[in-house]
Every structure is written in C-alpha cells, then in structure tokens.
Amino acid sequence: xxxxxxxxxxxxxxxxxxxxxxxxxxxxxxxxxxxxxxxxxxxxxxxxxxxxxxxxxxxxxxxxxxxxxxxxxxxxxxxxxxxxxxxxxxxxxxxxxxxxxxxxxxxxxxxxxxxxxxxxxxxxxxxxxxxxxxxxxxxxxxxxxxxxxxxxxxxxxxxxxxxxxxxxxxxxxxxxxxxxxxxxxxxxxxxxxxxxxxxxxxxxxxxxxxxxxxxxxxxxxxxxxxxxxxxxxxxxxxxxxxxxxxxxxxxxxxxxxxxxxxxxxxxxxxxxxxxxxxxxxxxxxxxxxxxxxxxxxxxxxxxxxxxxxxxxxxxxxxxxxxxxxxxxxxxxxxxxxxxxxxxxxxxxxxxxxxxxxxxxxxxxxxxxxxxxxxxxxxxxxxxxxxxxxxxxxxxxxxxxxxxxxxxxxxxxxxxxxxxxxxxxxxxxxxxxxxxxxxxxxxxxxxxxxxxxxxxxxxxxxxxxxxxxxxxxxxxxxxxxxxxxxxxxxxxxxxxxxxxxxxxxxxxxxxxxxxx
Amino acid sequence: xxxxxxxxxxxxxxxxxxxxxxxxxxxxxxxxxxxxxxxxxxxxxxxxxxxxxxxxxxxxxxxxxxxxxxxxxxxxxxxxxxxxxxxxxxxxxxxxxxxxxxxxxxxxxxxxxxxxxxxxxxxxxxxxxxxxxxxxxxxxxxxxxxxxxxxxxxxxxxxxxxxxxxxxxxxxxxxxxxxxxxxxxxxxxxxxxxxxxxxxxxxxxxxxxxxxxxxxxxxxxxxxxxxxxxxxxxxxxxxxxxxxxxxxxxxxxxxxxxxxxxxxxxxxxxxxxxxxxxxxxxxxxxxxxxxxxxxxxxxxxxxxxxxxxxxxxxxxxxxxxxxxxxxxxxxxxxxxxxxxxxxxxxxxxxxxxxxxxxxxxxxxxxxxxxxxxxxxxxxxxxxxxxxxxxxxxxxxxxxxxxxxxxxxxxxxxxxxxxxxxxxxxxxxxxxxxxxxxxxxxxxxxxxxxxxxxxxxxxxxxxxxxxxxxxxxxxxxxxxxxxxxxxxxxxxxxxxxxxxxxxxxxxxxxxxxxxxxxxxxxxxxxxxxxxxxxxxxxxxxxxxxxxxxxxxxxxxxxxxxxxxxxxxxxxxxxxxxxxxxxxxxxxxxxxxxxxxxxxxxxxxxxxxxxxxxxxxxxxxxxxxxxxxxxxxxxxxxxxxxxxxxxxxxxxxxxxxxxxxxxxxxxxxxxxxxxxxxxxxxxxxxxxxxxxxxxxxxxxxxxxxxxxxxxxxxxxxxxxxxxxxxxxxxxxxxxxxxxxxxxxxxxxxxxxxxxxxxxxxxxxxxxxxxxxxxxxxxxxxxxxxxxxxxxxxxxxxxxxxxxxxxxxxxxxxxxxxxxxxxxxxxxxxxxxxxxxxxxxxxxxxxxxxxxxxxxxxxxxxxxxxxxxxxxxxxxxxxxxxxxxxxxxxxxxxxxxxxxxxxxxxxxxxxxxxxxxxxxxxxxxxxxxxxxxxxxxxxxxxxxxxxxxxxxxxx
Lengths: 515, 952
Known about the structure:
The complex is a heterodimer. By secondary structure, chain A is mostly helical.
C-alpha cells in the first residue's frame, strides 16, 4: 500500500512541531522550511491527483484497522482535487506572507499555517465522520490563531466572534455525530452510506435530524445564509494572506456537503428526501444576494472583499444545492475558480490597504498604483463573473446546469441581477480607489494624521515588489483555468460521475485496500 | 489569414503599444496601427471568397461540454463589420496620435483601444453565441477603461461607470437570452441556430429570449430608454468617442439584431418592440440633439437618433428594410466618424466645444470646414451624399408601413425625426463655421496638421463616392451583407440616387425645408427648451445608484451589526426549525428500551447537576461564583461517569476540570468580577425563550436516542473483541484512543497544542501594546493576600511534586490495561507543576523550568507522529501499532507496545499545552519590578532582606 495518501496530513504535522521545537526563534529558517514544505506538498498532491485521475478510489487504513472499525483516508478525484487546491493556495499564501512581511507581525505564523494545511487536507481526505470533526477542530483552532496573527483590538474582537460562533457549530457537529451514531452505530462514511440506505422506517426521524444537523454544520463553514454571520468581520479583519488562505475554508464546508449528500444522504436515498435540495437552494440564493449587496454597500476594501467572497461561495452553493451530476460538475469547476479568485482578491486588497488604507474614498495616488489597478481589475472581473475569466465560465456552467431545475427563473434572476450589483459596486470601488486619486480638482486626497494613525496608512514609497509574484501566479492560474476550461471541465464531470456512483467509494472502503 | 489570427491580433497586439511607448509616441502609435492594418489585410484577403457567397470558418473546441467553443465564421455581415471596425480603427489610431497630448499616457490608450477593437472583431466573427457574449462583455469592460481614460476628470469616471452599469446590465440580460435561445435550439452554434426559425419562433420561450436579447442590444446601441449613457460617455477623449460611437460599440447592438434577424425577426413581437423603440429613439435623439450646445453632445444625441433609425429599419422585418439598415450602417459610420473627428479638431484648436462660443470658423479653419460641412450635409440627408440615399430608402420603406392599423403614424414621426436631424446638421455647419468671425475664442483657431485631418478627409471622400456612385462603390457589398442578414438570397434593385418623385422624396423635402426653418427659429426655441423642465438622466441615474448604494449599505450594516448574541440567536432558531422539520417529516417507532428504575445516587447527582446549572443562570453575573458552580457541574459529571462504570472518563473529566478551573481563575484575575447588565429585558426574554427551546430540543433528541436501540449492530462490538487480541490492551478506551482511533487522538493533541501556542501568540501580541503598561500599573480590585507564598503551601507542594509525578507515571504506564493513559497522566503531571507555580510564584518556577513548553508540545506531536511513521518500516500504514511480550530474567512477563510510545507523545503534548497556556496567562500578572520580600526559596543562608549571605 502506498503511504503517499497520508503524507499531505503527516508532512505539515511534522513540520509544525519541528518549527516550534527547533527553530521557533529563527524566522528565516522557518521561511525556508515552510516554503520547501509547501513545495514538497505540491509535488505530493499533484502525484496523488495524477493517481486519482484514473478513477480508482484508493483507501488508506490508519493503524491497519479495517473500515468501518478504524479510520480510513480516501483518495478519489474530488479529495485529490481539493488537496491540490489547498497546496497550491498554500504556496501563494506562504510566499506572499513572507515577501510582504506579514509573517513577522506576530508569533508562530508558519507553524500555525502548517497546522492549518494539515487540518484542511485531513478534512478533505478522511472517510470517517468523527475524524472529520477532529480535523474541523484542527482547522478551526489553527485558523483562529492565524486570524488574530499580529493582534490589534479590532482583530482580536473579530477573532472572538469568529471562534465563538464556530464553537457553536462544533457543538452542533457533536450533536449530529452523536445522533447519527445513536441510530446507525457507525461513523465510517462508507458504512453510513450502506446503513442510511437500509434504515428501517421507524428510525428515519432521528437519522434525518442527524443529517440535517450535519448539513447545518457544513453550511456554517460554507457561510450559507443565515449561518454566514461569522464571515464578514473575521475575513475583513484577518491578515491578508490568512484571509486568502481562508478561501479554501469555506470550500471545506462546500466539499463536505457535496461529499456527505452524495455519498450518504444522496438525492436518491429515501431517508434523505427533502433535507438538502429543498431549502439549500433558497439559502444559497440569499447568500449570493447578501454577498453581492454587501459588495455594493461596502465602505472599505477589506469588507467589500469579504462580502464578495460570500457572494462567490453562494454561487457555488447554488450549484451544489441542485444535486445533479451536471450541476455538481459545474460546482466543481466554480469551486476551483472561486478558491483562486477569492485568494487573489484578498491579496490585491491587501496591497491596496498597505499602500493607502482601507477606506473606499479619495486618497493620494499609491505606489505601484497602475499594476495594482490592473490586478484589481482582473480580480474584480473574475469575482463578478465577467468574461473572459473563469468566473464567467463558471457562472455560465451554473446557469446552464440550472436549466432543468424547478426554480430556474429564480436562480437565473438572482444570479444575473446580483452580478450587476457586484459589477456596479466593484466599478465604484475601483474608480474611487484608483482613478479619483488623480483628481486634483476635488482635493488632494490627503489623509489627516488621526485617520492615518488609526488605519496605519503611511503611503510607503518603498513597498516591496516581490509580493506581486504570488498574486500574478494566482492570476495566471485563473487564466489557465479559463483557457483550459475544456479539460478542467472534463475532469469535473468525471469527478461528478464518481460522486454520483457512490458504490465505488463504498466498495473501496468496505472491501479494503487489498480488494 | 485565419480567423483566429484576425480575432487574436488586436489582443496580442495590445502589448506592443503598452511597451513601445517607452520608445516614443510614434513607435507606440505605429505599433498599434501596424497591428490593426495587419488584421484588416487579413479580413480583406478573405473578402473575395465572402463576396462570392462563401463563408470562411475556423474552429477550435474550448468548452464543448457547455457548447462554448472558439468557433468563428465570416460571412458578408461579419466581413462588413470587421472591415468597418478595423478600417475606422486604423483611421482613429492615426488621428489619436496627433490628438493626444504629451501628458496623456498614450501606451495605455492604444492598449485599451486594441483590446476594445479585438473584442468588437470577436463579436462580429463569432459563430458561437456564448463566445459572442464573451466578446460582448469585453467591449463593455474595455470601453469602461476607454471612457474613464482621463481618470482625473469626474465626468470621465462617472461616464465610464454609467456606461458599464447600463451596458453591463444589458450584457447580463443578453447572457440570459442567449442561454434561453441556445436551450430552445439545442445548440449554441450560431450558424446552426440560424437554421431553426420555425423551432425558435414556435417555442413558448421565444418571447423571453427575444426580450432578453433585445435588452442587450438596446442598452448597447443606446435605444430609448437606455440611451442616456451614451452622451455621458462623451467625456472620453474624442478619438474614443469617434470610434465607439460611430462604427463600433453602439453598432454592436445593431449587429446582433441583424445577426439574429433570420430567427428572431418576422413576428409581431419583433416588429412592435424593435421598430417602435427605434422610432421613439430616433425622434427623441434628434430633438434633443438640436438643443445641445456641446459639439460632442450634439453628435452623441444625433448618434442616438441614427441608431434609432437603423433599429427601426431592422424592426420592419422586410428585405428592403434590412437593405436600408445595412446601407445606413455603412453611411453613418463614415459621416459620423468624420464629424466626431472634426469636433475633436475644433476642440483641440479652439479649446472649446461650446457651439455658443463658436462661429465664423469657415475662414479660419477652411479644411476642417469642408470636411465637417460635407459630413454634416450627408447627415442631414442632402443629395448627392450617401446619407441622402439611405435616408431616402428608409422613408420609402416607412411610407408604406402600418402601425396598429395606422398608416400615418410611422411616416409622420419619421419625417419629424428627419426634420430635426436636418436641423441639427445645419446647426453644426451654421453655428460653428458660418457667421461672423469672433474675437473671443479661447484659443486662436487654425487648421491642424495633416495628421489630424487626413482621417476624416478620407472618410468624407467615401461619403461623396458612395453618394455619387452607390452601385459601383457599395452595391455588391450592401447586397452581400443583406443576404447574410436575411439568411437567404434576395432580389434587389440596384442602388441609385434618383428614384423618381416618390412619397419619400416629399418627406425628404419637408425635412430639409423644415430643418432650415427650425434652424432659423433656433434662438427662441432654445429659450423655450431651456425653460422647460426635463428629466435629467444623469440626476436620475445618480439618484438611483446612490439609493442603491445606500440601500445596500443599510441592509448590510443592519444585518451585520456585529452583535454576536443576535447572530447566535438566528443560528439556533434556524437549527431548531430545520431540525424540527427533519424530525416531523421522518418516522419514529415506539420506545424499545425499558425505562430504568430511579436509584438514589444518580437521583442526587441529577438534582445536583440541575441545581448547579440553574444557579449558574441565576448568579451568572458573579463570575467567581459561576466558575465555582461550573466546577460543581464538572464534579457531578465526573461522579456520574464513575457511577456508570467509566473510570477512564471520570479520571479525565476530573483532571480536565481542575486544570480548566485553574486557568479560568487566572484569566478572571484580569477581568471584572461581575458581568454588567448590557441587554434589555426584551432581549433577555428572547434569549431565554430560544435557550429553553434549544435545551428542550437537545434533551428530547437525547431522550429519543437513549430510549431506542441502535438500528444496526454497532462497531464497538469489534473494538471490544479486538482490544486485547489486536491492540494488546485490556482497557478498550485506551486502545481506542491510541490504536483504533489513534489518528483522532493525533489530531486532538494537535488541537490542544495549537490552542496553547495561540494563547501564547495572543499574549505576545497584547504584551507588545500599551496594554502592558496598563497591566503594570494595575491596582488590583481586590485586596492582595498578605502572604503571596505561604510557607505551608510552598512546603506541601514541594513535597507533593514527586508524589504527583509518580502518580502520573503510574497512571501512564497502567493505561493500556487499566483506567489511565497518556492524556490523564499528562494532566496530572501538569497539575503537579501548576502547584509549584501557584505556591511559589511564576518567577521562581519559571527560573527552575529548563524545558521550553513550545519544545515539549512540539516533541509530543513529533513523538506521536514518528511513532506512527515507524509502522512504515514494518510495511504497515501510519499509526499501526505493534506489541509483544518479553520475559526479563527474574521478572514478570512484561508487555511492550508502540502504542505506549504514541501515548508518550500524547502525554508530552498535554503537559506542554497546559503549561504553556498557564505560563502565558501568568505573564499578564508578572511584574519584574515587584519582588516578594521573601522569595519562596527556603534558603537558610539568606538574611531578612532576601540577600544571600556569603559565608566567606
């Protein structure tokens, strides 16, 4: 059996304690090892993806205990894709954090990031619902540490809300798991799939509660309305590289919904009828609306970015909530896009904020304003779903997949109209931030000292150039995602097919890696 | 040349001017021109084939799953538009080189212009309607950049945003329309769709598709009521206006209507929507244009009017209408581009575009005068210029069109439109060039260099040539294009200038004469116009956008006001509702497990638990008391665990209780001792209701689960059966923790470790701010204990330490078979050290602690991980345990298990995490300047002042 599968979890889990033990006082060494580790991780995850492309579902039995009694890791197309996204995003984030100096504004950035990578990768790969809970905890606590990295009153306050809200979610997760175990007597996902299909009629009510609680927990992570309240303040106050990496965190929720509600509580499973599709689509549409509306209403760059993240996740959830293979394929494409585009937007926002402050109002022209404006334009085009970037393709795919849905008119109207709101909002922000700076007629856009101190605006003249590299890297990924939309979509369709043939997964897990 | 190359050239070429501007403005402009010329040649070499009725195609699949592919085709219509776009583009590039000043970033300008040009070429060559939409939206984006090019001007920025909002909105409607159309036809391939007229027009979704697509076309082509963005886009540099509003952007909507004509046109809906909109736009635009004093605004509204005219022609749905439309597209492009460029020249030379400040330029700017006059006359529809021909064809077509059974409605309105059109054209000549020479021009006017007038001059030559020899110059072209529009070959009359005395001629005559009269009456009319209140589009638009922004901000800030209590309330109510729904839509069988007898001990525990919990609610404002009560709850739970034969859990719970209460007491030291009353009675009532509902829900759920058996056999049977056999331990709980589910434990010790280092990191962050100073100067709100380090306690804890550590070791080693294990042992060891901190103080303990807690946490995780990795060398998966028995001579049989090593990792991580958290919290209180009078070291060789007496 190949041990590769466990490496995306074990490698960061080895690196982080190594940082803490040996080199916690040597930021330069941490940087070297952090980058090296992420590079190796990229190699590993790409190899795993290559392996999973064949369509084989690989299973790794931890402790050599057979499923459903021990914990298994499962590598299929979807989980392979997700860990590749995680590692690629991590590379961009690590480089940005190093080159922008963000990792030096607090303690333990690198070990926390490695733990975070570990948690996210584990959540994507585990085949055990309780183990999923454990990884949710790992990524929650690590993300909390990252979120408040660097400190500051506002950030700490936002952090408390973030962790408090998510702990309610964790409690709910435990209730859900307890309920499900109390009925089915197992928490192995493949085993649950078997049990859920055979559940006796008199036990359906409890299992349904368990299922819906799970869905709610994942919806919290995916920031689906009305469970999204933790997101705006925490994302807009988190350090930029961290917020960028959080692009994958909402995807953990989306992934978990996609996984659980195709594998265990699939659209064909009798016990799950009416649980997911019925309300999720409306919640997702509301999410899109609130996200895009927030984009238009925002007075600050970071907050605007946080809201457009909600909008983007909402679009993804619309696609997922349809629970058809076509829509899920569209969702997978959109998920890739959304991850990178959101990350890029946060990094660009950080470049703006570092150079001129957070406020969407007239300020003096900033250093590197032209390049940053171009990057902002690109990121905005991607986030708003304008052609030609992947956001547009993703949106078209989602709309096209919704054609047969009963709510097609509603879905189309909401998605298209809110896109317009986002376009207007982003154009407004871009015009105020980048163009109005040159308008000497309406004031010089100078910031008074109080504001400057409060926002930490210094109008640097020697802002580092190297942070542009990862941002351009992310942009290049978006362009590649556009150009190679065909092959990517083929992969997404294969992935969706695999998801909607859960027997493959079930057999691979329950029959063991030997079979 | 391949169509791919033609479409790609402007995009690829956009890089060159952006870079070459460093080599000078000529290099920059030449690069842009060369790229455009190359693409134009590419179109022209394909022209013979197209004129012969052929279609040039090029196809690559892009996203075949969706049906969005890079499929291009060039028929007559595509070629016609591509030539217009590239040809006029070339002229504009030449013109702009001389128009832009040194201060303007020319590299950006040409780069944007080429991007825009590429997008336009893409629209007209697309053979896939989704691809077309891509290019369509690209024109919106690139025109946004072009219109906002002068970013220091508010008008430019606002015009750009308005254009983007309106055309962007249309673009989104168009996306919807195209998706509907594609779904009706079953394909997104344009040439396949064009063959399916019956299918599409009989579909119930035809009207939906039509309206959505027309919304896209109307917004782009500035049709009423979406016309208002176009005049505001005039804030752009004139070359941009000339390009966007003569030949390209605004023609995109017309192009699309012409392109989809075979499948969309011919129905009543088409006729009434399109032709009526066109007519209204035409008249409205013409009327407003007459009263505009800004040259470019006049031209802008005249453009709106002419676009309305062409829309009207397309809306008629007849062959002759289509022919006239095509012909007028050509003619309008020529004279309007020339006029815009003339207006730019006037602005450039006189530094004003205000007609009221101009006049008499005839002699000062003779070249410009000739160019502008010919172009204006063509616009007015004066023979023998090309504008006359197409307008005549329009009037002819209109004269026998009935609208809702009315024979006069169209002709009368069309004549009025033509009349105003003639009037503003005459005004352009009369009020700018004719009249007396003035002496108050802002700048002394003279003709510009040849570079600026060569482009409009060339266009004016075309205006005359087409006017004089329509058949020879444009006849074949217009017919080929019209065939392409209609999708079939038609019979046409040759284009000619004289059609005899027809109703159209009368209408034309009325228009010209009326136009002259209107011009003569302009001054009084203008007074009346200014006095008339009119809805100002920009005010309305700004008001709408402002209201939208305010509404959005209001909604967002109201929803997300940062009140965690409300967030949580929404969360819980939502969970309850959905949980209730899930429950009621499922089925639950009767209770299968009998209720147990209520025994005395658990009943006492139950009462203790309930009482303590209620007391917490009642006394929660007293923080110390609630902490104590929480401790009580924890202890009762511990006892319950023990009662129900779960000694492992009981031990864990007990030690966790101790540690957490100690940590929380430490934290409480820095906080107010009471919680202030911050919420209203209503809020508290709401919260109480929600909490009670949630509690009942959870309680009910647990009750339901406990009173029913499992539906299936549980996996714990396996764990019980295999604990000793496979895991080498009798204590199933411990074997589950370190073996069956060692991976969970691995994750959890990491969680614990992270929690500790996060506490450390927060402490670091806070201690570096002004908080540190505040802490140092803090006056405790409670009297400080007289003796910080009581001797008795110091002595006892010191004595306790080895004992406690011994217990920890004992608990650790017996863990695999009896209650205990690394987790509990870690907590006990941590408590042993915490006792030292408490009794002897932070400074004393820290000075004697040589292992950094970070390192202990790290080593714990590492030991656990490395133990797990060890299995690889045995050829087994991560965390596979191994165990065996050895018989040391003279001793009992002894078991060794790798799981114990893993448990050691757990132990270390727990010790490190707890102590790091404690140490971090202690640092808030630690003050280097305050030293106890008696440091707690019981050192006999110390005098009363704490100094060590040296013996020697």
